[in-house]
Each structure stands twice: as structure tokens, then as C-alpha cells.
Amino acid sequence: MSVMTLRLPEKIEKELSELVKTTGHTKSYFVNEAMKTYLEDRKDYIKAAAILEKIEAGEMKTRPLKEIMAKYDLGN
């Protein structure tokens, strides 16, 4: 595992310190959780942007939600 130095704005550091006090988890725990969430969200965003580009370029087609729901009998 690597070590990293992180500078946080005072307000965020105070909020993080309060969270540590109330939960017993470490600052590292919360920073790691936040980074995992951010990276997962970023990957999803990049995938979605690539799909949107294909749709806009006419390389991929979309289907109406009603059609999909009917196909899988999800209307009820």
C-alpha cells in the first residue's frame, strides 16, 4: 500500500475529524471510501459519454422505454 500526502481545506478537514470522532473509523478509511466511490462514478461517466457519442454519431440506436418494458413484461 502506498502513502500519500493530502491537503484539505480547513472546513473539510474539520468535518472529516468530526466523522472520525463519531464513528471510530480513521481518516484513511474515509478518504479511501471516497476515492473508491469517485473512481467508480468516473468510470461510469466515461462509459456513458462514449455510448452517447456513438448514439449521436448514428453508430448505436436507442429504443423507447415503453418498448423495453413491454418486452420484459415490466409494465405491471
Descriptive tags:
3 helices, mainly alpha, 67% helix, 76 residues
3D architecture notes:
- This protein is mainly alpha-helical.
- The chain has one domain.
- It has three helices and no strands.
- The chain has helices spanning 10-23, 27-56, 65-71.
- The protein is elongated, with a radius of gyration of 21 Å.
- The mean pLDDT is 96.
Based on CA atoms alone, the radius of gyration comes out at 21 Å
What sort of overall outline do the alpha carbons produce when their principal axes are compared?
elongated
Strand content: under 5%
- Count of structural domains: 1
Distance from N terminus to C terminus (CA atoms, Å) equals 50 Å
Number of strands: 0
Low-confidence stretches: none
The proportion of residues forming helix, as a percent range, comes to: 55-70%
The total count of helices amounts to 3
Instruction: Please identify the oligomeric state.
Output: single chain
SSE class: mainly alpha
Residue-averaged pLDDT: 96
Return the string of H and E elements. Answer: HHH
Main pleated sheet = none
Quick overview of this protein structure:
The chain has 76 residues and is mainly α. It has one domain (10-71). 67% of the residues lie in helices and 0% in strands.
List the helices and strands and how they pair.
Blueprint: H1 10-23, H2 27-56, H3 65-71
